[in-house]
Write a structure and sequence with these properties.
By secondary structure, the chain is α/β, with parallel strands linked by helices. It folds into 2 domains: 134 residues, Ribosomal protein L1/L10, rRNA-binding domain (Ribulose 1,5 Bisphosphate Carboxylase/Oxygenase, 2-Layer Sandwich); 88 residues, Rossmann fold (3-Layer(aba) Sandwich). The protein has 9 helices and 9 strands.
Amino acid sequence: MTEEKEPKQAKDTATKSKVAKKVTKKEREQAPVKKMGRGKRYLESAKLVDKTKAYALDEAIDLLIKSSTTKFDASAEAHIQTGLDPRQAEQNIRSTVLLPEGSGKSLKILVFAEGEAANEAKQAGADFVGDDDLLEKINSGWLGFDIAVSTPDMMAKVGKLGKTLGTKGLMPNPKSGTVTKDVGKAVDEFKKGRVEFKLDKEAIIHIIFGKVSLGPDKLANNFKTLYKAIMDAKPTSAKGAYIKKISIASSMGPGIKVDVTSL
């Protein structure tokens, strides 16, 4: 009994089907990623904001508060696009600023120190103070704190935790004011509202400058202080526009453009 040959038309159809599958896969790889759907609350609050307009600071902060719909006390976020080049060490700015109205956030501060410095840290209100005992605890996986401060003489030991602290953004650094002999002052200021700002790989500074519950006047005061600190940190090698764009938003709220010229 001879095998019945597959009709030519069927072969052509199968070949076309394979080609179609390849094209479909290619199209699928090139297709744009679908954005996650926004919730009803977000969509309602977004209607308050004109995306084509840049608002004066006071008006922008009023909108930030009105467009916050979270059940918790939302943070006020600033996203500042600079004209810096993060690849140049001098332009990769990193510093801190003491917000006059506080950050509105309760922080747990750890201090690596010995002797008198350890006593100063405790008196200033540090949540965790120690040396080898804390190093061992962190090495075992514990990270129950928000900021780590260290005296300079402890950094030889603390530096060995680079893989643990560095990846979490918790490694003490002189530029952020977290490596200092005056640990008492550092703890006091971080408790009062000292925050760190730094440039990311896209030349943007992302920073929280308070909580919505602070109200418009205090948030505006915090933002103006933050803006001045960033302007003061401008590198001498910076060329062109230093601050290109600014937007603010509440946690999970719509972005609001700020008119840079109004600042």
